[in-house]
Amino acid sequence: MKHNFFQSTAFVLLIISLFFIIIPLFEFQAFSPDSIRFIHFWQNSFSSAYSDIEDNTYKLSIFASNIYDALHASNYYDLGRGRLIIYLMYGIENILLYSFNVLPINFLITAIIIINSHGASLLISRNVSDFKFYIYALSFLLIAINAISLSPTMYFALYSKYVCLTFIVYFFIFRHSFLKILMLFLAFFTDEIGMLLSLIICFFYILRYRLLRLNSKTIDTKFLLKNIFFSGLMCLMLFASFFLIILLAFDATPLQFVKYAARGTLWLLDPENLLNKLIQVAWTFEILILGFSNESNFFLTIFGFLILIILLFFIKIKFKEIKLFFSTNELSKHLINFQSNHKQSLLIFWVLATILLLIVLPSSPFRYQTYSYPLMLSLAIILLLSVSIWLKPARFLQILVLIGVIHMTMIPGMINNINTSNQKHLLNDSSVSAQDINNLNSAINEIRINQNYETFHNLDNSQEIDFSGMWYYSLEEHYRFPYETDNFGNCIEKNNHFGNCIDTNNYYPIYGSARVLAWPHFEIDKAGKNKRQFSKNKPTFKDLD
Fold it and tell me: Which residue blocks in 295-433 are alpha helix, DSSP H?
């Protein structure tokens, strides 16, 4: 049975309904500190009124300038990483804040999870001969309804690791050349992972193009290596182009790329980290099968080594085929036949993508936040695609039905995993509680709906947002950058990150959070005067007397 547009739409609506049923069961909903900062950049950039200007051209110019300033400040705060798609998404968050009377639920991340799950399920079911729709639908369910996928709907996190694979997935879905190129271009500006995977795809296609020019000519090892080198050089030029674009557009060199892309390689030298990565793979498989995790280190260690033994055994029995695969003639044939719609090519690519993710991303077992998601999505594609290749559709469908039933019955376990993990992640030392978050949300909604500031004043600690902190809230220890002073104890502004002169090493900015999240309903006259002046196009500020 083939699935059509109407069947797919109906199922997507069903999944959306499940999200809306599950989200209210979380203990709190919160914006991460980074999310509030990025949203602030957009609000701050557009704070200057231009509605009275009559010249429409001038209006458009100011509008473009405001967008640029928001992107510039975001990129500066993001240490020059050039993740423009992510910064634009926070601009969309402001539109959502503007469109609702109360604080909206995390619509954007929910949409991303659903779009990713839809795309991955299309890849898995595309080459299935029978039961296509049912395999698509159940694959969708397994990828979308599990503890890792549901976790970001609880709090507004950085979007990069949830979007870094989106455009890569849809590169393999779209058939039109323009759309494929567009997907690769957009992937470049999502995250280091999206960029590296785009370069891998470009490498394969450049090499394929060069090898196809030979027609029937024999390809020897020397010629193959020559073309591999040339294709790699072309990809390095694309890589350099990204740096050049960011430098010219924002006067910032994305030097942090080296740090973020290479750190995993250094961690591979640590045996404990290798064990943690093995446990994470086992933990991810557990969640893909059960929907949640029992979080047993002992069980997952055994399961991880079992996966490793099975993998090594598979390599042993397939050694001759693997050795033949890497011979010059066979490898050349596979490279020439590399196509985005070919299931073997697709499987090989996602195996390479998973290896890259394991190298680049930090190990994060039992953490249901950003770093866990791309690995889960990639492993899900490998697992389900492999089973779809090796098993008959009827047997594959039976397995999916069984796992789907398990996922639906384990939703309470998923919720428990997410509540526990996200509290540890966002409320690191318990100095800020879930009830504190809920109280602040209530105060913000009172401002948004009724312009009532009583609850806000009862909670207000007069703390504004800053740009030197971690990803969590804490009243004890929060800042990651040193606070430098001279011999007299005075702040050395130029030596402090983003020019911040920090008074206290804690962070729970009730005033700043309310100002940003109650926008556009927040009125300074009622809330109290803002004692901090922010720069328009940089994450810097000056405290007022």
Answer: 297-317, 319-325, 328-336, 343-360, 372-390, 393-409, 411-426
